[in-house]
Task: inverse folding
């Protein structure tokens, strides 16, 4: 007898789905049997061929800071698949500036995408989920891509760190309020991933790798696939008793490496 794939019959919407982590997560969830809808303000042609040509993947253009666009995208996802099991608020941006030089416009833009955008995805998805029939007691799951820095200062990170810290508290409030309505809310908090936002910094700033290896006890940057493993678990039935939690997958970055 063949075992049923863990995420068979599971529909997952991922914002920022065309980015490096978004695509790695999509790939992993599809392997586990899910159907994924990638929401992104970037064009579909950023998708690698394996995802672009996969019938289990669809793409909807959507800027998470535009509430109407998020509402339409999620409604369309629900309409085409009959159910929205999981929404992953993953879209993000980063600006790095020393505190005394933080440009208020950059702070505002970062909060707008990372916090307000995540709020839009989370609230609008949860509003749809609460009307769904529960499956094994769960109506839906809202997940966030947090970061190890949600609980840790890191030099030059004011805008990004504050946005992720705000997301963490929002997730906890949501989890508490929606627990009795069958909604689970959790976070995957990666460390420093050699992909996407950190890869751009790594490639642009000569001292980035030095700062990074000084911060990671496991001594190497993380893979996007390790982040995807965390999401696969949080999307699955195996995590049904978790809510309001952060799954920290950071190579020990939060421990602070001491040599
Ligand atoms: N790369 C890392 O080291 C790292 C570590 C911890 C957490 N994260 C988080 O992972 C998530 C994904 O980042 P990534 O590293 O894959 O970067 P990435 O730049 O490859 O992906 C980010 C995606 O978000 C999309 N996006 C940005 N603003 C948007 C908006 N307003 N509306 C819709 N889409 C928007 C971009 O188009 C892009 O496709 C982010 O939330 C980031 O904070 C990344």
Result:
């Amino acid at each position: 007898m063949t075992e049923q794939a863990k995420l068979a019959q599971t529909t997952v919407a991922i914002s920022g789905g065309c980015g490096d982590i978004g695509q790695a997560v999509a790939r992993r969830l599809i392997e586990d049997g899910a159907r994924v809808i990638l929401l992104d303000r970037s064009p579909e042609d950023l998708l690698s061929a394996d995802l672009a040509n996969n019938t289990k993947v669809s793409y909807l253009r959507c800027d998470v800071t535009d509430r109407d666009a998020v509402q339409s995208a999620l409604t369309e996802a629900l309409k085409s698949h009959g159910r929205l099991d999981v929404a992953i608020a993953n879209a993000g941006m980063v600006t790095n500036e020393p505190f005394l030089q933080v440009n208020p416009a950059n702070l505002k833009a970062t909060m707008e995408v990372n916090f307000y955008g995540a709020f839009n995805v989370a609230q609008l998805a949860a509003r749809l989920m609460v009307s769904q029939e529960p499956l094994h007691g769960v109506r839906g799951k809202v997940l966030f891509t947090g970061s190890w820095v949600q609980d840790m200062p890191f030099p030059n990170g004011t805008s990004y760190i504050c946005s992720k810290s705000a997301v963490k508290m929002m997730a906890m409030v949501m989890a508490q309020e929606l627990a009795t309505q069958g909604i689970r809310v959790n976070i995957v908090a990666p460390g420093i991933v050699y992909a996407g936002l950190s890869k751009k910094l790594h490639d642009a700033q000569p001292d980035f790798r030095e700062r990074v290896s000084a911060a990671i006890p496991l001594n190497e940057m993380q893979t996007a696939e390790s982040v995807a493993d965390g999401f696969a678990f949080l999307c699955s039935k195996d995590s049904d008793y978790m809510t309001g939690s952060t799954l920290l997958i950071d190579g020990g970055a939060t421990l602070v490496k001491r040599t």
